[in-house]
Amino acid sequence: MCASLSSKHWTAVHLGDKETLLWTLASGDVIHHQRTPRTAADAKRDLIAALSQAQVTKSAPVLVCGLTEPRAALKVPVTPADLDLMAYDLEGWPLLALPGLRQTSPVGLMQNSTAQIAGFLALNPKWDGVICLPGAVTHWVQVSAAEVVSFQSTLTTGLYAALETRFALPASWSESALAQAVADTISRPERLASRLAELQASLQSADTVSGPGDRTEAAGLLWGYLLGADLAATRPYWLGQNLALIAPDSLASPYISALAAQGLPVTQAQPDRMALEGLKQAWRREGDSPTTP
To answer: In DSSP terms, which residues pair with 130 in a beta bridge?
Structure first.
């Protein structure tokens, strides 16, 4: 076992969809924070780049979320606060990793959300309900008695990103158009594909596109069509539930608007803070310090 936890430097890393977040801590305090874009399909390459940029020595312990292979994911139900860490050696860096979560029915895989869920539950003890984590894959996670009971996943935000580029839409979107489209597709989700085709056709018709205002409305319609279908598919996960949303403002806003249109209040939590809290909780659970491989 290494020296006392309170006297050691250690590094926490969260490998997200688009960026790698890194914190160096000493005596429980963050002394260095770094974010770098994800550039490689191989998470290990991006982790090595982040550790090198932060000048993390190979004698310093590192705790990471988002690194483990899909086959190492743990089957739900599980308690995030009690997960066993996995030991790795990454080109000389001693690593401990939080495992991902998986489910057999419906089939699902969460590889980099474990720390955020654990962090939210650590900051909100005795909280029961559903946590929504939008990202390249959006996860709706049912939590009861500090345990992840089940989850359901959608590709809503990934589809939006792809179609936003294809349709050349602006970053801003119309809230009223979003609410209109949510109401349309949540009641008739089978219309999603045809609604998207109609939206594309309207944007391609020069006589119906008069300026940026129409593009902003189109962005709202796109969000609404996709989120309406998302909400229709995940209704058991949000209807009558306490809801928390772990997402940056850019992704949280359309979800909050869509849920508000259904009369549902949402608690928003910042993903960076949740990830760090979850990693700190896992570190504390290791006792004096993580053991090296």
So the answer is: 142, 243
